[in-house]
């Protein structure tokens, strides 16, 4: 079985178990997005049926292998984190004014911003209903992660405070926006399986670190990748003026070293990149700049942290599969 980012589960018994778990998650996602109002069902299932990597449920299922992977709360845990993730996508597309998501029209483009934001809220409510059945500890975990997720989004919107290091601010934003929910996948999956508390904490920490690593790798891919790798046109964030990690590292180098060429590139990136010629020039220059290499190193450093987090866990197929996710970061940023 090949999972997100080309990660394979090599052990046959584990592969069969994970495949069955993901199929159950998918069936539950469809049920959880049904409503007595047909239009709500249509909008809520819009992105579910468009597919996706299902990375968060996969991590929850792998984390459950350190306890009883067939415990009744494991599949619902995977559903909770995926529903929450899907809800954030509806809201993200509104803020980004995105027209396409997962190869289909975004909900805001197909219907309206109002429909998209309310559908996202509907999915959050369904995730909350499911997690309430998993017990008060699960509710607390989900609530705290949701607070961090929203805080990260607000921090990104507000930008770094005066005197704050923009790169450190970016890492904090990514940990909140992306890492927090992936940490929940590791924590809830293992918690519902009855894994020991130290194992649960380890898998939550791993989830956050691998989540940050993959998001930083996405920053790199926006500059260095091809469309077939990233699923979007290279330089999309660049064109939209989003300051991803390579841009932040460039600004840092320009401010520190003061090289004329670096300052000129910073000015180019700060200008209007909706013009195709200017966009192509900026993309080519940033691809050749040492800032991109430094951003790769940052992504790999987080992936290495995630790998080392796994050290206390018992060896076995599940640990090997989690370690392979770290290898996948290197493959994506190479």
UniProtKB/TrEMBL annotation:
<keyword id="KW-0460">Magnesium</keyword>
<keyword id="KW-0808">Transferase</keyword>
<dbReference type="InterPro" id="IPR033749">
    <property type="entry name" value="Polyprenyl_synt_CS"/>
</dbReference>
<comment type="similarity">
    <text>Belongs to the FPP/GGPP synthase family.</text>
</comment>
<protein>
    <submittedName>
        <fullName>Polyprenyl synthetase family protein</fullName>
    </submittedName>
</protein>
<dbReference type="InterPro" id="IPR008949">
    <property type="entry name" value="Isoprenoid_synthase_dom_sf"/>
</dbReference>
<dbReference type="InterPro" id="IPR000092">
    <property type="entry name" value="Polyprenyl_synt"/>
</dbReference>
<dbReference type="Pfam" id="PF00348">
    <property type="entry name" value="polyprenyl_synt"/>
</dbReference>
<keyword id="KW-0479">Metal-binding</keyword>
